Amino acid sequence: DTGVSQDPRHKITKRGQNVTFRCDPISEHNRLYWYRQTLGQGPEFLTYFQNEAQLEKSRLLSDRFSAERPKGSFSTLEIQRTEQGDSAMYLCASSLVTGNTIYFGEGSWLTVV
Amino acid sequence: AQRVTQPEKLLSVFKGAPVELKCNYSYSGSPELFWYVQYSRQRLQLLLRHISRESIKGFTADLNKGETSFHLKKPFAQEEDSAMYYCALSAPNAGKSTFGDGTTLTVKP
User: For A11, which of A72, A108, B61, B72 is 20 to 30 Å away at the CA?
Assistant: First the structure.
């Protein structure tokens, strides 16, 4: 297992378009997290899943954002009607339920032009 | 509300000098505290967590509940320690972690 993987690594899109990011967690991890990071700031929590259940969502996650983890394995994060303010690195991470050590992916860079 | 403050954006020391990266937090209760590190062109990874009370790569961090601080220290910095360091906290067994904005450490030869 090579760790948490994310796809695509980079995405450039026009304002108003929809984008989707995929995350494959470490196989035995039942928790999966999404964070957003902009330049000069630390990761900001967006949402997390335990198996297929979405247990917490940040207020940062507006109605244009939706995340799913349909079978408790991989997850997708979709952003509808993208805005320039959505430009950021979207980080996925995973962990076991017991213990809070989370393992990050390399992130997906989004640029909205 | 959970909050983590890292007052120094940039920190530069010479090789062999002691280094301390500051972290202050606000949280009602007893949080779990972490230091994460991101080396150049690598993913963010856990460096240490306070409940482990361990030393990783020569780094230690002491939780001071009175001052609500969790500073990261190393007595003799090495060039390979140059990286971005993030302090983070979470409620026990919670999903959400709150990160500081990071400190970029540069160790000069």
Answer: A72
